[in-house]
Amino acid sequence: MRFFCIILLFIGISSSLRGESGVAVIDSQSGQVTATLAGKELPVGKAFDPVGTDIQTGADGFSALVFSNGVAVYIAPNSHLQISHYEQTPFKARPDDVEFEPSRSTLRTSLLNGQVGVAQRDPNPLSAFTIELNEGVSVSLKAQSATVIHETLSGIMAIFDGRGSIQVGEQNHILSEGYSFVASLSVSSEEHIKPLTNKQREEWEPLAKLASIALRRWYFQTPEDGVILPSRITTSSIHSSKPYNNTKL
Fold first, then answer.
1. What's the pLDDT at 235?
2. Whose CB among 8, 211, 214, 230 lies 3.0–4.6 Å from 119's, allowing a Cys bridge?
3. How far is CA 219 from the centre of its chain?
């Protein structure tokens, strides 16, 4: 049993943002960041339909993005992320429902370059979360904590808590907790699955932890009209009695 101390600060959003499509919110960002949707800059702390979002960070910039399905992505400096698809089954969440994904969802993103840290609530077994790299490489995650890196000649996935898989051409490789996968994007492509070293953990895990911090700051609920309201969590004291994930499939 876990106890949470939650005071919800509701943030007003447009009534056009319905539960069928799901929403996202920029938790925080700093430094050189360009976050746009349809050519317009996205504000921090306001809900929006994220399909088509383009976020680029410079050498001193970062951005943290939280989705209503319980996924958070921390976009590290010198990185470029795009959101290509997002669907979420309508849901009714309770204020004590902060551990599990609220409903089935499909989220597809593209990491054009750089590094992202990822955090998830306990995911719905029918949900899909994909990060596409290039040259036929894509990552699928059901992980509470992970880091994905897209470099010029390689793609890297590191799992700290949970599991994931990486697709390289026609081959799919399963990755379990405590391992990293390096996929070479050169012509003579080679794949390597190895246990995480202490150095890799020190370098990569902080990105996932920053995503987790952003995720814990937000709660999404749906009143009777179906509009998804993001609420910023400031402090806590709500008791969750749910022993398992019974979210809507």
1. 54
2. 211
3. 14
CA 23 to chain centre: 12
In a domain, 247, yes or no: no
Q: Is the pLDDT of residue 118 over 60?
A: yes
47 has a pLDDT exceeding 80: yes
What 3-state class would DSSP assign to 226? coil
Range of weakest confidence among 25-34, 155-164, 210-219, 232-241: 232-241
Residue 135 lies in a domain: yes
Task: List all residues 6 or more positions away from 38 whose beta carbon is below 8 Å from its beta carbon.
Answer: 52
Single-letter amino acid code for the residue at 198: N
Residue 122 exposed, middle or buried by CB count within 10 Å (0-12, 13-18, 19+): middle
Q: Which residues pair with 59 in a beta bridge?
A: none
In the chain, how many domains are there? 1
Range of the domain at 154: 2-240
- C-alpha 205/C-alpha 160 separation (Å) is 7
Query: Does the residue 183 lie in any domain?
Result: yes
- C-alpha distances in angstroms, 245 versus 102, 165, 175? 9, 22, 23
Query: ∠ CA 21-26-27 to the nearest 5 degrees?
Result: 125
pLDDT digits 0-9 by tens, 57-106: 999 999 999 998 889 999 999 999 999 999 988 777 655 566 777 788 89
Q: What is the CATH number of the domain that holds 19?
A: 2.60.120.1440
CA 67/CA 119 separation, integer angstroms: 11
Residues 6+ apart with CB under 8 A from 16: none
- Does residue 133 belong to any structural domain of this protein? yes
